[in-house]
Write a structure and sequence with these properties.
This protein is an alpha+beta fold and about 140 residues long. It contains 1 helix and 8 strands. The strands form 2 sheets. It has a 4-stranded antiparallel β-sheet with strand order 3-6-1-8, with no helix packed on it. The relative contact order is 0.25.
Length: about 140
Amino acid sequence: MIGSRCARMSVRRWVRRWAAPAVFGLLLLAGCESRPSGPGTVEASLRLAEGGSPGSAFLVVQGTGLLGVEGTGGTRVWTSPATDGGTDLRVLVMDPDPEGEMTFRVELSDVRTLPTVTVLQLANRDNVQLPGSTETQVTFDR
């Protein structure tokens, strides 16, 4: 009987000394995020799936806390609120540089929540509309 009581005490001591602080530490680490939060901008680029960049694109940018879109490098951007009165933006993006990359910056109230981008129309560098089936890739860099 004494041996089993000592064994129970040992387990209790072990839990108090090691397991409880270890679980607390893991919970504390799980609550930490490595990504920054709060207002800021994210860099975005639009590329054709087959390589290269279009000359212009008409986009809808959607997301919570979307504050604006601006061009970077030689890329020029014009924005307008979507007609449904929501927070979405309709964005015309043009890159006149024949060798340039179509890049733009999206301003957000919280950079942890990335927006979604829907490509409505594309044109090549000669201002010829590309087919609707043209595959594109939009990437974000925090």
